[in-house]
Write the structure tokens for this entry.
Amino acid sequence: MNGISGRILRIVGILFFGLTTLMNLLGGIGTTCAAFLTEQYPNYIALITQGKQWLYQGLVIATVLTSLVGIWVLIELIRGKKNAFRNALIVLKIGTLLAGIQFYFSLQLFGKAAPANMKFYFNVATLILFLIFLIPGVKKHVNFSSDDRGSGVDIAAGLTAITLGILLLTTPIWAGASHSYHGVNWIDLLKKELNLGGIVLLGAGMLMIARGFFTAYFHEFNFPGPEVSQEQ
């Protein structure tokens, strides 16, 4: 493994963490109606009959809060701030625990876990990836505490933004089946917000990647900067 592969793994880690954070946020928001307006959603009436409404309300609040912290940590990872990797591990452990609890009780109460199962799988996969980064042979090449402001940061941020944007725009496709009741897709309640967020992220991601490539181009060809040479 060399420096290039280490930077690639760093980008992959940031990308996975971003996807997991977004899945947690969407999962928390998506469970809000079922947890707090249960009587209006017959599919989830078992929360009341089995006395578990309080649990899902707590999961919603905890998941959304964890996601908001995850957004902050994602920015810290991209910027290479100190302790960002440690904080990411903490967020992933909490996210995995919360998603696991919802996964288990969804199976017990409703006989199915979608889409809570996908949220759990994302958290587990990303947590495993970050634990791999702790292996000594990998850790020395994958630096999440780099203060580098060059093209790598822009490209990592751009790829993450584009991927998250696509995920938002396609939410009705991959989450619609599990959020439909009597022909009504509950995703439509947030369709405008999802589309707007997806378009903004796509545009911002493309601009960041373009800036990253321009930065790499100027650096590669060593265009003269404003420095003035000093004669001795």
In short: The first strand starts at residue 180 and ends at 181.
